[in-house]
Every structure is written in structure tokens, then in C-alpha cells.
């Protein structure tokens, strides 16, 4: 049994911590929210009064926090001062590559092996233990992290050195944001040209326009497999989180001097959607905006 401190038990972290408990680990939980802590306690975690209390005596620390500023502050003020030497640190939050690298560097200086291990898969996958982890860190840190991450996911892939997990995550999500926007505007055009949506789906899904956004997550209700479109765009992956990831991708592209015009355009489109108050809806709801009317 491994003693694991888990910090950040929100929509994602709550399910992930529960799966660590199910795998037989002793999970010591801390969150700023009492409600989140109560849910974690009901799932079998031990409540800690502070992040430092959760970390003290733990073999590993997992964080699942909103953004880079939270991660940098929690590691600097709570984790590094309280952790035992050689404690394994795993940050599963989605954050900018620069912060991931600087926190991992500070961890290394303080003698802690660390991986950045952001996830693909949403709240349902976190609860079901079917996340995909993309992991940055040394081979030794990855080897220690893999069994812990496997208890929360279906795939654990070593992407490279520190920050490589975050780089893989934002590249994947930039591709997803751009293909979803392109899929939505294409379906809107097809309808306006008089094509039956199901007929066009049947053609494109076996032609060169096929993509995951079209055939696994179709943004039109009643077409393709079950998706958030069939539930009024509720649940799924919130448009605000897609915008967050597209902003991280734009920031990374600037720092790497990479041209990402399609990613940039997808970011502008999702910014318009979120500014219109639609940020909590699934990201495929952008079809309504591109259609100029409700989809269907
Ligand atoms: P969330 O807002 O539901 O949870 C974050 C939790 O962190 C909250 O409970 C908050 O109280 C807690 N927190 C913030 N600062 C803290 C601190 N200093 N100490 C302790 N707890 C603190 O967010 P979420 O949806 O669970 O997302 C978490 C991370 O996972 C984000 O980086 C997000 O981008 C990423 N992610 C989310 C999804 C998704 O579908 N929700 C999918 C993939 C990745």
C-alpha cells in the first residue's frame, strides 16, 4: 500500500482519488473546498487539514489543480517544505509548458523526482478510471509513476523529459479544437447546400474528411454515435476548458516560434463562444454559433 497525498479534488481529482482508494492506496486528500473534501472522504480518502498535512509522510503526491499559478504556489509553499526526501511528485493538471518545466526543475533541485502527467478524457473517464496520461519526466521518475497512474487510467505514455506531457496535451487539444471547429462549419455548410446531414455524415465518415470530431463525437444531434449533441450539449468537455487549452497552445507556439494559424483561429472562435456565456456547454456546441441558429 502506498501513501498518496492528493491535492485538488474537483471534477477530475475527485474521481481520480476514488480510483486510487479502490486500488488499495491510502489517500490523504486536501482541497480548499469543504464540499470537494466531503465527497473525497465518502469515497474513502482521509481528510487533511492542509496541503502540507496531506503531504507529510506520503510516498507520492498527486496534484489536479486549475492552472499553472496554483501548481507553482502549491509545490513551492506546501509540497517542497513538507515532503520526505525522494517523495515522487505527479502533477496531472493541464498547465503551461514553461511552468511545468520550472516546477520540475525546482523539484529536482530539492531532491524530488517529478513528472508532469496531464490527462485526456473528461469527468466520466476520471470517474471510470479510463483516462489517458501523457507523461514528461526522467525514465526513472516515469517508472515509479506508471503504477500509480495506471490505477486511474487505461493508457500511460512516456512523452519525453519534463514538460513533454504538457506539450503533448496542448498539441493534441489544439488539433481537436481546430478539427471540431472545421467539422462544425462543414456540417453547417453541407446543410445550407441542401444536403441531408445523415447522408453527408455517411459519405464523409468513409471519405478523406473523416475525423474523430465527426465520427466519434458528432456535433449534430441524432447523427453518428451518442455524443453531448444528443443531450443539448450538456456534459462532455466544456468550451471554457477548450479555450484554456487553445490559449496554452498559443502561448507555447509563441515561445517556440511556431506558426499555428489554424490553432489561433480556433482560439478566436472559442473566445467568441465563451464570451457569449456558453463556456459551460460542451465544446461541440460551437456548431450552433457557426450555423447561426440551433443545430439539428
Ligand atoms: P475543478 O475546478 O473542478 O477542480 C480543481 C480543484 O482544485 C477545486 O476543487 C479547487 O478547490 C482546488 N484547488 C484550487 N486551488 C487549490 C489549492 N491551493 N489547494 C488545494 N486545492 C485547490 O477543475 P477540474 O475540472 O477538476 O480540472 C482540474 C485540471 O484538470 C485542470 O487543469 C483542467 O484543465 C484539467 N482537465 C480537466 C478536464 C475536464 O473535463 N474537467 C479534462 C482534462 C483535463
Account of the 3D structure:
The chain has helices at 11-22, 34-42, 51-55, 68-82, 97-109, 123-128, 139-150, 164-192, 197-204, 212-215, 239-256, 261-278, 286-291; strands at 3-7, 26-30, 46-47, 60-63, 88-91, 114-116, 119-120, 131-136, 153-160. It has 296 residues and is an alpha/beta fold. The chain folds into 2 domains: 3-161, NAD(P)-binding Rossmann-like Domain (Rossmann fold); 167-291, N-(1-d-carboxylethyl)-l-norvaline Dehydrogenase, domain 2, CATH 1.10.1040. The strands form 2 sheets. It has a 6-stranded parallel sheet with strand order 3-2-1-4-5-6, sandwiched between helices. It binds nicotinamide-adenine-dinucleotide. Nicotinamide-adenine-dinucleotide (NAD) binds next to helix 1, helix 4 and helix 11. One of its GO terms (molecular function) is 3-hydroxyisobutyrate dehydrogenase activity. Residues 163-290 form the 3-hydroxyisobutyrate dehydrogenase-like NAD-binding domain. It comes from Pacificimonas pallii. Pathway: Amino-acid degradation; L-valine degradation.
